[in-house]
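stage 2 :: seqdesign
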């Protein structure tokens, strides 16, 4: 009978097969379970989502900025209120995105005198420059083709005296509308167009709270063009001028009471002395 050799190695046991893997092999990495989106989604390029030089915060912030609606505030203060990261980290992430071409930020002065920051989000940095270099001459349009144009906003009333303080107060009213309804988040261009209309209301002694209520009450649903709707309301519901108030002269001067040096009677005069009866001029006339 053969004896057992203790020095012989036992054959390695085969690894358990992963029934979920398509080839029956175990997988240590991520497995995707995808569902096709049909609404409320954003297409993000892998060049951003898998960028090797951007920080994880910058990548996440870039994806968020590309997903929001045009006109959404993406300044440091607004982002700090939206996310748990502080202003310092968010400012650094914005600089990363700007350095790699995913953001363009410029500071401009609007007609009201305020300086605003315009932010442009680029979902594919360098693509526009490369396209313009490849085809420097614009293609000719046929007579039937017309360039796409943004619909202009309706005209709004104008104040009789467009004082800078009045226009600044009007801009503050428009900027605060989004706190009452997020759909009333206006761009800097729309705010500049609507500010004179609000100033015309304020000039007619309408308080800012009343102007705000008139613009935000009973909004239609859906609200397609918020700026155009506000321009219509500013014009159609413009209140009349305040009632005419004639200018009145200064009140009559009322002198204090004095005691006459002659008869000790009380009389009104700016300084002590004689009353009209005891005054030397009166005595001579008599």
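stage 2 :: out
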């Amino acid at each position: 009978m053969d004896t057992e050799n203790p020095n012989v190695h036992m054959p390695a046991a085969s690894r358990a097969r992963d029934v979920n893997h398509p080839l029956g092999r175990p997988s240590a990495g991520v497995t995707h379970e995808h569902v096709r989106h049909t609404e409320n989604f954003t297409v993000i390029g892998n060049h951003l989502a898998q960028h090797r030089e951007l920080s994880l915060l910058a990548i996440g912030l870039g994806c968020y900025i590309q997903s929001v609606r045009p006109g959404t505030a993406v300044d440091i203060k607004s982002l700090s209120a939206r996310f748990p990261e502080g202003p310092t980290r968010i400012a650094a992430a914005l600089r990363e995105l700007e350095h790699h071409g995913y953001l363009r930020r410029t500071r401009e002065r609007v007609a009201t005198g305020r300086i605003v920051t315009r932010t442009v989000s680029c979902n594919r940095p360098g693509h526009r420059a490369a396209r313009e270099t490849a085809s420097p001459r614009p293609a000719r349009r046929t007579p039937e083709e017309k360039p796409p144009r943004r619909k202009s906003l309706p005209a709004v009333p104008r104040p009789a005296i467009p004082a800078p303080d009045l226009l600044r107060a009007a801009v503050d009213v428009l900027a605060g509308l989004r706190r009452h309804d997020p759909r009333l988040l206006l761009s800097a261009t729309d705010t500049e167009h609507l500010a004179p209309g609000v100033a015309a209301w304020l000039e007619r002694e309408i308080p800012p709270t009343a102007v705000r209520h008139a613009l935000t009450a009973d909004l239609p649903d859906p609200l397609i063009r918020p700026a155009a709707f506000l321009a219509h309301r500013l014009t159609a519901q413009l209140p009349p001028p305040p009632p005419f108030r004639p200018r009145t002269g200064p009140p009559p001067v009322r002198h204090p009471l004095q005691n006459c040096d002659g008869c000790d009677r009380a009389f009104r005069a700016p300084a002590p002395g004689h009353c009209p009866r005891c005054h030397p001029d009166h005595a001579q006339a008599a």
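stage 3 :: structure notes
- The beta strands are 103-109, 115-121, 257-259, 266-268.
- Residues 129-135 have pLDDT under 50 and may be disordered.
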